[in-house]
Amino acid sequence: MKSTGDATAINIAETKSASATIVGTTKAVQHPQAGLKRGLAIFDFILRLSAIGAALAATATMGTTDQTLPFFTQFFQFQASYDDLPAFTFFVIANAIASGYLFLSLPFSIVCIVRPNAVGARLLLVICDTVMVALTIAAAAAAAAIVYLAHNGNSNANWVAICQQFDDFCQSVSGAVVASFIAAVLFMLMIVLSAFSLRKH
């Protein structure tokens, strides 16, 4: 009876050690993947903060751009403002929408940091980021075309360059366009990071 009991005890001990080894091996495989996803989520959060700064800078710079020349005639006063051109108005609205979205997306980014394997929040961010990058690039491209004409004009269409007179106005709108393109690039990086996070290993 003792020998049978000893054999049983040995089998139980061996089973427990084997299960412990399996659990330890499983944990060792899961931790690096979760750590990588958490690192990508943290980097995504930093990119979102940077994109907020770029989009807000583009919105504020374009939205406050206004220059009036010091000379005028009896009937005309020479003034340039962003709302004189629909492309610049669209630019301000689009970047304001992007800024608001980025601010609202921060809690979802934090969820991805706390729960690196959460698929729903990450998938939602990918879809919304894709829409926002399209909106931001469209606004920046439209504004860039107007800025190019303001700097160089178009002799075929009899459009004269105005930046020699409205130099401060042109510098401000050019800086706003650059900031918007920076925000669009940051959006692209966030989409790539989300794609890596959603990839199954």
Automatic annotation (TrEMBL):
Keyword Cell wall biogenesis/degradation: yes
Membrane disposition: Multi-pass membrane protein
Spans through the membrane: 45-65, 85-111, 123-150, 176-198
Stored InterPro entries: CASP/CASPL (IPR006459), CASP_dom (IPR006702), CASPL (IPR044173)
Keywords: Cell membrane, Cell wall biogenesis/degradation, Membrane, Transmembrane, Transmembrane helix
A single BP term in Gene Ontology: cell wall organization
Family membership noted in the UniProt record: Belongs to the Casparian strip membrane proteins (CASP) family.
Function: Regulates membrane-cell wall junctions and localized cell wall deposition. Required for establishment of the Casparian strip membrane domain (CSD) and the subsequent formation of Casparian strips, a cell wall modification of the root endodermis that determines an apoplastic barrier between the intraorganismal apoplasm and the extraorganismal apoplasm and prevents lateral diffusion.
Protein known as: CASP-like protein
Annotated source species: Vitis rotundifolia
Lineage: Eukaryota, Viridiplantae, Streptophyta, Embryophyta, Tracheophyta
